[in-house]
């Protein structure tokens, strides 16, 4: 009996050792012609050793990342001396990674190599690095320190700015929560601060352009200081910056991209530059705290949904003597009962213009007699219950047409006639 029990115990011990051995084998292997990897679960560390370039990974079983099964467990990555290249998407979405050690001699960091490594706290780029692929550190929202070693011929982090700058172009490629933008940079790249926890930005006078989605999703960003000389702000540059309260844009800006301030829910003030010719698609979509908008004389086109969801607007001013062209049915999707101020002598032009004619309270600039909906009465029309256009915007039926009241269509033949419900 005792012999049988001992044999059983030996078998269990053998199975346990075999399982541990197999598990250990699964956590190490090859990741290049002369490279190996090893993951130690006890300290959550992945080490890449050997010489040369990392293999390129794909989505098939044969070339998938060998650490994919424990990718979301890794907290530390050590790239040992001898490794020259990190492949595209190598550690993409390793969301718990906190530290990465790059070796001297590393020359290439691939596209999306560390994209969405939210837990990554600091970067030190060796002076040997010659190429960093697009989106390599995009979405690393936990970063608080970025340093490029002195002597790097391609990149720098000048003036202790906590950012990665392409030296030849003076373009800031990636920033972090503690970045201070240095004087001398000419541009901020696409998604440079994407999802970053930065709270305040002072743009330097040398800055010419801000790339698309540069500050997209910077929910903690409260203040941005703009300087004269800035000429280009890309699409969605500040989209979803819900803490931003003011955007005093310089008149040097000649292009303001679509959705540039979309869903900036805290924005209560913006100055639209007087050289713009176009209000782009979705420019101020969802800026619900914005109270007034002044459209400069230079604007000739307004695209769809530019002001959609600006429910806090109490007035709109358009300074062009010729009503700008509205491209799309929702280009002026606002409360049509708010005062619309236009240049002297231009009221009739706006009353006759497509879409602008929907405003029921058009007045000349400086005419303080303009009234709000609560004070505006139209003979024959009861406005104690809100009226809406077919498109759903609040209005007063001062012209013949079909409107919505109490959830039903109402045909108004004339403001002075009785209203009849339409089936």
User: Radius of gyration, Cα only, in angstroms?
Assistant: 30 Å
- What structural class do the secondary elements suggest? mainly beta
Count of helical regions: 2
- Gross morphology is elongated
Helix content: under 10%
Number of strands: 34
Q: Which regions have little confidence, pLDDT < 50, spanning 5+ residues?
A: 1-5, 12-25, 370-381, 415-423
- Mean pLDDT over all positions: 88
State the strand order across the main sheet.
12-13-14-15-17-19-21
Task: Give me some keywords for this one.
single chain, 423 residues, mainly beta, seven-stranded mixed β-sheet, five-stranded mixed β-sheet, 2 helices, 34 strands, disordered N terminus, disordered C terminus
Give an account of the 3D structure.
This protein has a 7-stranded mixed sheet, with no helix packed on it. It is mainly β and 423 residues long. The chain has helices at residues 2-26, 347-352; strands spanning 28-32, 35-40, 45-50, 52-53, 76-79, 83-86, 99-101, 108-109, 122-125, 131-132, 145-148, 155-156, 164-166, 171-174, 187-188, 200-202, 209-210, 223-225, 232-233, 246-248, 255-256, 269-271, 278-279, 292-295, 301-303, 315-318, 325-327, 340-342, 362-364, 387-388, 394-395, 401-405, 408-412, 420-421. Strand 2 and strand 3 form a beta hairpin.
């Amino acid at each position: 009996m005792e012999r049988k029990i001992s044999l059983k115990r030996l078998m269990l011990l053998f199975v346990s050792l075999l399982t541990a051995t197999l598990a250990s084998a699964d956590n190490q292997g090859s990741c290049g012609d002369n490279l190996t990897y090893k993951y130690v679960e006890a300290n959550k560390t992945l080490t890449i050793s050997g010489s040369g370039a990392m293999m390129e990974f794909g989505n098939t079983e044969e070339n998938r990342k060998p650490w994919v099964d424990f990718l979301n467990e890794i907290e530390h990555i050590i790239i040992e001396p001898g490794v020259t290249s990190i492949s595209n998407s190598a550690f993409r979405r390793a969301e718990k990674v906190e530290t990465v050690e790059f070796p001297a001699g590393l020359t290439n960091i691939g596209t999306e190599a560390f994209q969405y490594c939210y837990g990554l706290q600091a970067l030190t780029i060796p002076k040997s690095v010659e190429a960093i692929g697009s989106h390599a550190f995009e979405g690393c929202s936990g970063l608080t320190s970025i340093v490029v070693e002195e002597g790097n011929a391609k990149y720098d982090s000048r003036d202790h700015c906590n950012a990665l700058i392409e030296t030849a172009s003076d373009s800031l490629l990636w920033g972090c929560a503690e970045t201070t933008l240095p004087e001398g940079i000419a541009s901020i790249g696409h998604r440079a601060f994407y999802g970053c926890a930065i709270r305040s930005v002072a743009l330097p006078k040398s800055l010419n352009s801000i790339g698309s989605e540069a500050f997209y999703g910077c929910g903690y960003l409260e203040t941005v200081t703009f300087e004269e000389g800035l000429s280009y702000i890309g699409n969605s540059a500040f989209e979803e910056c819900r803490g931003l309260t003011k955007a005093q844009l310089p008149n040097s800006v000649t292009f303001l991209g679509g959705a540039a301030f979309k869903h900036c829910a805290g924005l209560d003030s913006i100055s639209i530059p007087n050289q713009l010719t176009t209000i782009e698609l979705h420019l101020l979509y969802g800026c619900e705290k914005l109270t007034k908008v002044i459209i400069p004389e230079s604007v000739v086109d307004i695209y769809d949904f530019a002001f959609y969801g600006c429910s806090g607007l109490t007035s709109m001013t358009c300074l062009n003597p010729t009503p700008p062209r509205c491209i799309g049915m929702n280009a002026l999707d606002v409360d049509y009962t708010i005062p619309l101020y236009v240049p002297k002598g231009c009221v009739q032009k706006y009353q006759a213009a497509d879409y602008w004619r929907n405003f029921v309270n058009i007045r000349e600039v400086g005419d303080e007699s303009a009234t709000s909906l609560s004070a505006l009465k139209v003979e024959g029309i009861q406005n104690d219950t809100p009226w809406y256009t077919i498109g759903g915007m609040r209005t007063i039926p001062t012209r013949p047409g079909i409107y919505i009241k109490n959830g039903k269509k109402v045909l108004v033949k004339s403001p002075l006639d009785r209203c009849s419900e339409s089936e």
